[in-house]
Amino acid sequence: EKGGYDHFMLKEIAEQPKAVADTLLGRIDASGRLTLDEVRIPDTVLREADKIVVVACGTAFHAGLIAKYAIEHWTRIPCEVELASEFRYRDPILGPRTLVIAISQSGETMDTLMALRHAREQGAKVLAVCNTNGSTIPRESDAVLYTHAGPEVAVASTKAFLTQLVACYLLALHLGQVRGTQWGDEVLAVVRELARIGEEVERVLETMEPVRALARSLAHKDTVLFLGRHVGYPVALEGALKLKELAYMHAEGFAAGELKHGPIALIEEDLPVVVVVPSPEGRSVLHDKIVSNIQEIRARGARTIVIAEEGDETVVPYADHLVRIPATPTLLQPLVATVPLQVFACELATARGNEVDQPRNLAKSVTVE
Ligand code: M6R
Fold first, then answer.
1. 195 Cβ contact list (under 8 Å, min separation 6)
2. Interface pTM (ipTM) of the complex?
3. Could you tell me the distance, in angstroms and rounded to a whole number, from the CA of residue 287 to the centre of ligand 1?
4. Do 125 and 171 form a contact (C-beta atoms < 8 A)?
């Protein structure tokens, strides 16, 4: 049932091109328009929403952090992202004009369920982004957008994450369409790019051997740090989470701009630091800043593992290891940039003799608060 793979996680990583294609299936027509009929929340409610709050846990929370960039950029609706376990304990401000998005692979995560119950009690509309048909979270929500990733068996979430991102991008575009805030060339270009993203993920998967070799060479390390900016920041958090849960290593993700506010003190000789570099296109300020960050940490001895787009030559002099990903629009980059981090963590777990599909102390779905 592992389809020839040693672990479900490897199989699920490999299934990602198909999973993202399945999430798009039937939701974009030939002219590039979206038809999200499942979003059974009336357009009037979507038009009047004045705030979006995303609630989720773990990897799904990281998908939410990335979704915020897309939602705010395409819809201009303020969006907060909150850990479901924290949400209801701070008496959040909610009402009929709040749209809550609950993201969950399993649809059974108790923290997320309690957060959405609380939101509905306050009159908010709740839309679930979920992978498991008929599970509790979609049943208790006003509407659901299924991710169609297929069953995810490995405890570490991989294909569910990528499809959560795709579903959130579609939702953000849909909201932009309904509210008339965005239907320009940029959005059409994004839709076209989303349609190609499966092939790009496939290309990334074909080039992962050096990443595996690198992971094996780092099996004796205690700590790995991850840095990113903009949407690369949640990608860094996700890379660190994967490493914690699979390799049982100390791993932390930081916003690269925070380095000088503390974390740079951690840098020492030969410390592996993974840096997710944003596209050099368009957002050159962001790109240049991260190139300086790479220089800063390397000058202090870090072993830099740089994830950068094909054709980005500026990073080459400062990369001890360079991992190439295809050029994609900035907001979509997490779909390709996360894949090497999944492979990296899976290989490190194997090299350290850990149980990949069933990491210690963890359960696939966390049904207690
Ligand atoms: O089923 P859910 O998406 O609600 O689960 C949320 C988290 O428990 C989950 O993403 C967890 O963080 C994963 N094991 C991470 O790989």
1. 24, 28
2. 0.99
3. 30
4. no
